[in-house]
Amino acid sequence: GFSWGLQVPIASPCPGSAYTCLEAATGRALLRQHMDNTGEDHPLNKLRVIIEPGSWGVNPDDTYNETPYEKGYCFVSYLAHLVGDQSKFDAFLQAYVNQFKFQSITADDALSFFLEYFPELKKKGVESLPGLEFDRWLNTPGWPPFLPDLSPGEQLMKPAEELAELWAAASLNTEAIEAVDISVWKTYQLVYFLDQILQKSPLPEGNVERLSEMYPKISKAQNAELRVRWCQIVLKNNHEAEYGKVKDFLHSQGKQKYTLHVYRAMWSGSETARALAMETFSATAPQLHVNVQNYVKKILGLEVAE
């Protein structure tokens, strides 16, 4: 199958484009984290993965990761960049949906349709530009050879980066912190802020506690994207007073994309965090999909049943 990425920012600096770029920056950070964990050359870090049981293929159960989403997003952004006009690309996407709705297709079908739709690009041979060949996009593992320009997102990213800097300081500038009104921030601006805090963690003693008190919108959030990040921050800072939130989150859902991040953070944390991981897993294992159970067992160094 072949799926197109999210809305593609070309470069109009309007608020909609800024927010799209902010979401894309968050996705790019997840892709970086994933590729750092696996190594860029891992065979699953390409867009076309042969999914066949057996010696030469891959079991589909093991293929879930950020690459098809975020590297796929970069590829679709590259196609839009080749077209150079967002409205023309949007018209193409509409035609693509109309052509292939209710069908399963391959990447080759999708890309042939793209080149037929834009004959001037086909004539230029855009599918084989050195270093950006469609074949390379699909079949070579590694970091995307083209990254869309996310600079329109700076107007949303910069305040989040500056606020994170303030919270990472040894002595907090309370006045500067209180001057930033995060109540008007949308979810992905908060997500981006938490990603910055996580990168800077562990923070100086007591800062996470103060942050938690000041921003109940974050520390008491029900949104899973915020909760998964808050759990990781709590663990990386050994903030045991909120370990209950980690436990609650793992009891409340079993999605692989959230669960594994939290278990990894617990397992690389303190002895208390590791004990919490074991206790929580033994309580929640029956409600987890068998694949997720096995992935958690690998993180916790437990035997995986064949």
Explain how this protein is built.
The protein has 306 residues and is mostly helical. It contains 16 helices and no strands. The chain has helices spanning 15-38, 67-83, 86-100, 107-117, 119-124, 134-139, 154-167, 174-178, 187-200, 207-214, 216-219, 224-236, 243-252, 256-267, 271-284, 290-300. α9 (187-200) packs parallel to α12. The radius of gyration is 22 Å and the shape is globular. The two termini are 29 Å apart.
Which architecture of the largest domain does the CATH hierarchy give at level 2? Alpha Horseshoe
**What's the gyration radius in Å?**
22 Å
Biggest pleated sheet: none
- Which structural class do you get from the secondary structure elements? mainly alpha
Concise summary:
This protein has about 300 residues and is mostly helical.
What's the arrangement of secondary structure elements?
Blueprint: H1 15-38, H2 67-83, H3 86-100, H4 107-117, H5 119-124, H6 134-139, H7 154-167, H8 174-178, H9 187-200, H10 207-214, H11 216-219, H12 224-236, H13 243-252, H14 256-267, H15 271-284, H16 290-300
Helix pairs in contact: 1-2, 1-7, 1-9, 7-9, 9-12, 12-13, 12-14, 13-15, 14-16
Tags for this model:
single chain, mainly alpha, aminopeptidase, 306 residues, Serine Threonine Protein Phosphatase 5, Tetratricopeptide repeat, Neutral Protease, domain 2, 0% strand, globular, 2 domains
